[in-house]
Structure formats: C-alpha cells, structure tokens
Amino acid sequence: MMNYKIYILSFTAAIMLLSCGSGTEKQPEVSEKVETAPLEAAVEESVPASVTLTIEGNDAMQFNLKEMKVVEGQKVTLILKHVGKLPMATMGHNWVLLKPGTDIQTFGMAAMTATDTDYIPQDMIDQVIIHTKMIGGGEEISITFDAPKMGYYKFICSFPGHFGAMQGSFVVEPK
Length: 175
Ligand code: CO
What we know:
Layout: H1 2-24, H2 27-45, E1 50-57, E2 67-71, E3 75-82, H3 88-91, E4 96-98, H4 104-112, E5 128-131, E6 140-146, E7 151-156, E8 167-173
Parallel strand pairs: 1-3, 2-8
Antiparallel strand pairs: 3-6, 4-5, 4-7, 7-8
C-alpha cells in the first residue's frame, strides 16, 4: 500500500514537470532570434568596399583634418587638395602615411634634406606605407591603396618644417 502511494505521487510529479516544461517553451522568441541573424549580417556587409577621403592643406601650414578613419581591407582613395595660393617651393604639401612606431621627429628631420626625392627620405622609406607627390597652391592629387591592417597610424606632410603642425591620426577600424 505504501509503495502504491509513492508511485502515484511520483506519477503526479512527472505530469507536473512535463506540463511546466511545455509551458516555459516560448516558440515566438526562438523564431525572433533566428530573424535577427540575417539583419546583423546585413549591417556587416554594408561597410563599403571602397572609400574616398579628401584632406586639405592651406597656406597657413595646416591640414583641415586631425583624424581620418577607414575600415580594414577597404580600398582607399585619398585626395589631397592644396587650397592655398603659395607655390610648392615655399608651401609644399604632401600626405605621407607612416608605419606604427615610426619616430615622426626623426622622420621629419630626415625629410628636410631629402630634396632630390620629394622630401621622402630614402633611408627611411621602409617606414612609409604610402605617400602622395608634393603639390603647391591650387593643385590636387589622389592616390589609391588598400587600407592596412586595423590599428592607429600617423600621417604627416614631410615638407621641411611642416610635420610638427601638419600631422594627424589615420585609424583603421576592424571589419
Ligand atoms: Co606641407
């Protein structure tokens, strides 16, 4: 008789557990999660394969941007515009992207004497990722390159004496 009662109680408990189990299953939530997955993927895919950035240099020895941002793997077209009037000989501007860890002071000093190579010091060329030609007032130039791996880079103008004022950050964000 004792055993029978225990059996009945166990059976009842099992039924309650089963009904609880099916009661907590929320089918709509599961399908909601499934639906958000393609949305996240679409956001990732919306990062453009290429990007065009324009930076200006003026007669006051200034770039108009202190920071530029791209995404890893993007094809970058960089346009440098000299919006001033002074000629290249006195107010030349270029855009030089340097590898992380490059000592800007050392590079800038070396550039001052690199008169035959557009103020790009050839003994430090391994520190340069990409650079434009030097231009004067009213001119513009563009270069296209693949964004380097994610990280923080520096860009400068390497015209003698300009790197102190004409420098900024080039941020490559992860994909
Ligand atoms: Co300059």
